[in-house]
Design a protein that fits this description.
There is one protein chain. The protein has 239 residues and is α/β, with parallel strands linked by helices. The chain has a single domain, classed as Vaccinia Virus protein VP39 (Rossmann fold, 3-Layer(aba) Sandwich), CATH 3.40.50. 34% of the residues lie in helices and 18% in strands. The chain contains eight helices and eight strands, in the order βααβαβααβαβαβαββ. The protein has an eight-stranded mixed beta sheet, with helices on both faces. Helix 1 runs antiparallel to helix 3 and helix 7 (175-185) runs parallel beside helix 8. The radius of gyration is 17 Å and the shape is globular.
């Protein structure tokens, strides 16, 4: 395990003080993330902009697009934002995942998974990519006009990073997906850049991937507990 993580307590906020886009995607049932997690993402992206930090944004795993829409709303219109997803049924777990993951996958595979607020589970949606594109348009961030690139396929096949990364939201659930994201994104993360790990406390495979990957890199990063785990690359002069 990563051991003791720095605890970060965000200021309490009232529901009506959330960024409007957070309330909108929640009302439209476009994300499993709670308001505090979406608020943290919005604030982290805004900080990228106010700090003038170089690099693209990445989301790996977008489901119906709710969190990606929040990120796209918070960023500058011209900053590149790459969104990777299979846009279909989640891939099966591997032997590196625990029984919790395998049981969850069996429910999904059987067709018994419930969606958000009683809707159809996103993995059962036909034409999920078109649905996500429509969700971006409905929330006033059409991808064509906002430097958003939706990239379809398994992370192992599609996730190739060829430039600096300012922030990545990693929502891959299982071990193989998360370890692939870390291996391909982390080497490109700029100083002060952030990895937001959605499932560290939710699924054993994600937790194992993060613990394994950062076992020999902890001195270069700050691990901060917000609503989710934020991993921030330290400036060189902070060592």
């Amino acid at each position: 395990m990563l051991g003791a993580l720095r605890q970060f307590v965000t200021k309490a906020f009232r529901k009506d003080s959330l960024p409007p886009i957070v309330r909108k995607v929640r009302a439209a049932s476009l994300t499993y993330l709670d308001p505090s997690a979406l608020h943290d993402l919005f604030v982290a992206v805004k900080k990228v902009e106010t700090d003038g930090r170089a690099g693209r944004l990445i989301e790996a795993g977008c489901a119906l697009g709710g969190s990606a829409i929040v990120i796209a709303t918070a960023k500058s219109q011209t900053r590149r934002f790459d969104v990777y997803d299979i846009f279909g049924m989640i891939p099966p777990p591997s032997e590196r995942d625990g029984e919790d993951v395998k049981k969850r996958y069996e429910v999904i595979k059987s067709g018994g998974s419930a969606g958000i607020n009683g809707n159809v589970y996103y993995g059962y949606e036909r034409n999920l990519l078109e649905r996500v594109l429509a969700n971006f348009r409905a929330h006033d961030v059409p991808v064509e006009q906002n430097a958003v690139h939706l990239i379809r396929g398994r992370f192992e096949d599609t996730l190739q990073v060829d430039g600096p990364v300012a922030l990545a939201h990693i929502d891959g659930d299982w071990y193989e997906s998360v370890i692939t994201c870390l291996r391909r994104i982390e080497p490109h993360l700029v100083q002060g850049g952030t990895l937001v790990i959605d499932d560290y406390d939710a699924w054993s495979g994600c937790r194992s991937a993060v613990d394994e990957y950062f076992q020999d890199k902890r001195d270069r990063y700050e691990f901060i507990r917000k609503s989710r785990l934020h991993i921030i690359r330290k400036p060189r002069d902070a060592d």
